[in-house]
């Protein structure tokens, strides 16, 4: 168990890239490398022996099968991974603590990216060494314990359909094949983390750099179709949309050059003409052979669009390897690319192992000369050819150990390796080689926001971007204070930025809609944030409140002065005229009217809200009732002077008191009904003022408030009418003219009050009502009592009976 996992870990640690079939043999490590064209996958079969041989040499022997032509070119792809595998086996075999009494070996077979060849190689793993006899084994010491399938999903699928019959597990270091409903559950163990974790990592990478306008190129395969159907919608949900989505053709031996040029030219035009500076590439291990056509095509005469810098983001499945004839092609298009790779740590002893390999000898390595010959254009004599052959699952499910590099290795319940992804920055050197720099990480567990990390300063971007972070947006960001307006027929990443309507804000970039502030806040000038409203009411401390208080107290003191003067001259004719009782009642009610205005100033309380409108309504009704009574008394007094008039019995205090009491009682009843049904109460008004929260009194019932005002208006109109009709009566005992003017002022004030009150808001509504109270009360005080006060104080000689009685001529 531990052997297989360490073996897997070392493959994982050094980015196993090409799909190989490797078979582990017991006594020696012989690897019959079938000569192949460079797109073939390798399949690795692991075999363990019951007897331990401590001095087992590690040898690779390239042995072509008889069916293959000798002239086929040997190109060992991803040779470093074969070395990593050999190093792992060697480390396991020399450590007696890992697999006591067992020795690991392996065999390597080529799949040729062909179902028939893959099935044939898999059957070889299940047969006796060197004998292709299906379902027959005579070698009891060599047991096939597992198979490491191809990096490409299609190869792994063909291998699995046979291995599943024998219940032999397959270890995958690429994507698991897409299964249809009729496919039985195959035994896959993925030595790659969950692909969904990689998708989340890519999404967070895009969100981190605010790349919301990207292009996507995928392989024409089942896995790519699953990626398009499941992952790309997730990107769209997070605000990423796609400038283009292109499918690259499958690369096979039968691919014609013309078809490759035609498809490549189409994709080249899409990529290079797009405003999207980021391209996401999802493909199989051999997809790089197709991508390398893009810079090659740009040199052709009929290609219109010249290459420009792009940030390529690649998935862990895609290997940066090329075909033999492409090794001199320009790879600078991928300079600065960001690639996801299975998380790994360096193993120092592996580097020493690699340095110890000598191309001059093929005793232990049948691949090394082929690799050197293709990589460095060396010429070697043909190596010796030898052979070795092939060859159990129960240990894999519960495997868990720490590798020599310090990584914990285990599988989850789905048979997927519990590991994260590294984010790799690819830097192209002058010799067209790739230098891989680890710049970030997508951890295997925890919330995606915490698992994702990246070091921006460590990234080298494509020279096109002058080492500044690329921007990949269809439309620039909409600044706070504006919102996105979608363009008809365009992807949702393409939009116009429109200012927020009045009363709404957007506090972040790229908001899809503006929204209102809370009731306690109001929008800023630029409509990009909310400002708390200030709490306001008509206060005693503010200038307006102080002015109104001063005015009310001044009028109240003036009224007190008039009352005092009248009381001092209580028995004079001018005071006695027109009913002293009504005079004093009117003065006291006016004094209370002036003082009632003070109830409207200050922070609204339950008591003040309950009293201020009703108290003023009743008191002012008493005042107007007194004026009405005075007017009626004047008329009746004139009529009573006529000979034989029956009006004498109506002239007197009883009638005056009855008028005042009745009219005031009606107003009191209205106020009591108001209190009983919907009384006024303190209220917090958050909506009437844009920048303020107004503390005021809600009138409770608007109709009852209107009834109170309407009744006072009715009394004023009646008083004005009677006084107007009596204005031309003889001057003796006649206050009708003064009452007419006072009622005219009163009606004018309250008629103008209604539109003014309705057109103002907040505390100024209260100020308007206070001013109306003071103005109307002052009108009554001035026009009715100022002439009498003037005679009493300044013209006392006129305050006698002879002056008041004029003979009728």
The share of residues in helices is 25-40%
Mean pLDDT: 77
Strand element count: 25
Main β-sheet, spatial strand arrangement = 8-7-9-10-11-14-15-16
Number of domains: 4
What global shape is seen? rod-shaped
* CATH T-level fold name of the largest domain: Rhopdopsin 7-helix transmembrane proteins
Low-confidence stretches: 1-40, 48-73, 383-391
Strand content: 15-25%
CATH superfamily of the largest domain: Rhodopsin 7-helix transmembrane proteins
At CATH level 2, the architecture of the largest domain is Up-down Bundle
Using only C-alpha atoms, the radius of gyration works out to 50 Å
Biggest sheet features = 8 strands, mixed
Count of alpha and pi helical runs: 21
CATH class of the largest domain: Mainly Alpha
- Structural category: alpha/beta
Q: What would your notes on this structure say?
A:
The protein is of the alpha/beta class and 809 residues long. The chain has four domains: 2-190, no CATH class; 194-342 and 420-474, Rossmann fold (3-Layer(aba) Sandwich); 482-533, Ribbon (Tumor Necrosis Factor Receptor, subunit A, domain 2), CATH 2.10.50; 543-681 and 693-804, Rhopdopsin 7-helix transmembrane proteins, CATH 1.20.1070.10. Strand 14 and strand 15 form a beta hairpin. The longest helix is centred in the last third of the chain and has 35 residues, at 606-640. The N and C termini lie far apart (140 Å).
């Amino acid at each position: 168990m531990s052997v297989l996992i360490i073996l897997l870990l070392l493959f994982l640690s050094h980015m196993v890239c090409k799909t190989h079939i490797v078979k582990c043999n017991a006594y020696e490590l012989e690897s019959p490398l079938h000569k192949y064209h460079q797109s073939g996958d390798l399949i690795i079969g692991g075999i363990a022996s019951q007897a331990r041989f401590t001095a087992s040499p590690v040898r690779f022997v390239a042995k072509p099968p008889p069916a293959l032509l000798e002239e086929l070119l040997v190109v060992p792809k991803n040779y470093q991974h074969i070395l990593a595998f050999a190093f792992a086996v060697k480390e396991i075999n020399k450590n007696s603590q890992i697999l006591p009494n067992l020795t690991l070996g392996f065999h390597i077979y080529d799949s040729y990216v062909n179902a028939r060849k893959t099935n044939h190689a898999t059957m070889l793993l299940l047969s006796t060494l060197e004998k292709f006899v299906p379902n027959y084994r005579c070698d009891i010491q060599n047991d096939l314990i597992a198979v490491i399938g191809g990096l490409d999903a299609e190869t792994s699928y063909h291998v699995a359909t046979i291995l599943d019959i024998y219940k032999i597990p397959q270890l995958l270091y690429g994507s698991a094949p897409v299964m249809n409903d009729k496919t039985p559950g195959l035994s896959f163990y993925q030595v790659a983390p969950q692909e969904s974790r990689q998708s989340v990592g890519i999404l967070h990478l895009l969100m981190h750099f605010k790349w919301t306008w990207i292009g996507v190129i995928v392989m024409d395969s089942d896995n790519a179709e699953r990626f398009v159907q499941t992952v790309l919608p997730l990107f769209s949900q997070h605000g990423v949309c796609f400038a283009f989505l292109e499918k690259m053709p499958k690369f096979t031996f039968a691919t014609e050059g013309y078809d490759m040029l035609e498809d490549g030219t189409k994709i080249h035009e899409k990529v290079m003409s797009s405003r999207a500076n980021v391209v996401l590439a999802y493909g199989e291990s051999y997809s790089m052979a197709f991508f390398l056509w893009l810079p090659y095509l740009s040199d052709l005469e009929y290609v219109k669009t010249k290459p420009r810098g792009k940030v390529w983001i690649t998935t862990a499945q895609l290997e940066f390897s090329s075909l033999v004839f492409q090794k001199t092609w320009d790879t600078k298009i991928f300079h600065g690319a960001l690639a996801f790779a299975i998380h790994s740590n360096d193993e120092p002893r592996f580097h020493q192992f690699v340095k110890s390999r000598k191309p001059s000898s093929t005793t232990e390595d049948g691949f090394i000369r082929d690799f050197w010959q293709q990589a460095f254009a060396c010429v070697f004599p043909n190596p010796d050819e030898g052979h070795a052959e092939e060859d159990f699952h129960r240990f894999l499910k519960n495997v868990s150990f720490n590798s020599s590099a310090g990584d914990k290795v285990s599988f989850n319940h789905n048979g997927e390796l519990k590991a994260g992804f590294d984010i790799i920055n690819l830097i192209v050197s002058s010799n067209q080689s790739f230098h891989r720099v680890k710049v970030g990480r997508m951890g295997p567990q925890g919330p995606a926001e915490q698992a994702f990390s990246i070091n921006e300063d460590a990234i080298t971007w494509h020279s096109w971007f002058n080492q500044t972070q690329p921007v990949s947006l269809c439309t620039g960001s909409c600044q706070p204070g504006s919102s996105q307006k979608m363009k008809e027929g365009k992807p949702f990443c393409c939009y116009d930025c429109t200012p927020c309507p009045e009363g709404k804000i957007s506090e972040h970039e790229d908001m899809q809609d503006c929204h209102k502030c809370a009731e306690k806040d109001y929008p800023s000038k630029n409509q990009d944030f909310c400002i708390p409203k200030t709490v306001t009411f008509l206060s005693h401390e503010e200038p307006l409140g102080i002015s109104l208080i001063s005015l009310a107290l001044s009028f109240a003191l003036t009224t007190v002065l008039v009352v005092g003067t009248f009381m001092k001259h209580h028995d004079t004719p001018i005071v006695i005229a027109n009913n002293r009782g009504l005079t004093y009642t009117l003065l006291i009610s006016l004094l209370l009217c002036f003082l009632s205005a003070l109830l409207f100033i200050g922070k609204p309380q339950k008591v003040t809200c309950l009293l201020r409108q009703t108290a003023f309504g009743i008191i002012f009704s008493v005042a107007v009732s007194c004026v009405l009574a005075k007017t009626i008394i004047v008329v009746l007094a004139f009529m009573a002077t006529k000979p034989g008039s029956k009006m004498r019995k109506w002239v007197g205090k009883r009638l005056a008191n009855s008028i005042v009491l009745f009219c005031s009682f009606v107003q009191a009843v209205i106020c009591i009904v108001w209190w009983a049904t919907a009384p006024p109460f303190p209220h917090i008004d958050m909506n009437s003022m844009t920048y303020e929260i107004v503390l005021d009194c809600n009138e409770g019932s608007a109709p009852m408030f209107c009834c109170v005002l309407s009744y006072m208006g009715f009394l004023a109109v009646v008083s004005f009418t009677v006084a107007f009709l009596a204005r031309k009566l003889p001057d003796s005992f006649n206050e009708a003219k003064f009452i007419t003017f006072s009622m005219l002022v009163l009606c004018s004030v309250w008629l103008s009050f209604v539109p003014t009150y309705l057109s103002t808001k907040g505390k100024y509504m209260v100020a308007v009502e206070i001013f109306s109270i003071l103005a109307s009360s002052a009108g009554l005080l001035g026009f009715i009592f100022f002439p009498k006060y003037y005679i009493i104080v300044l013209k006392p000689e006129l305050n006698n009976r002879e002056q008041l009685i004029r003979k009728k001529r």
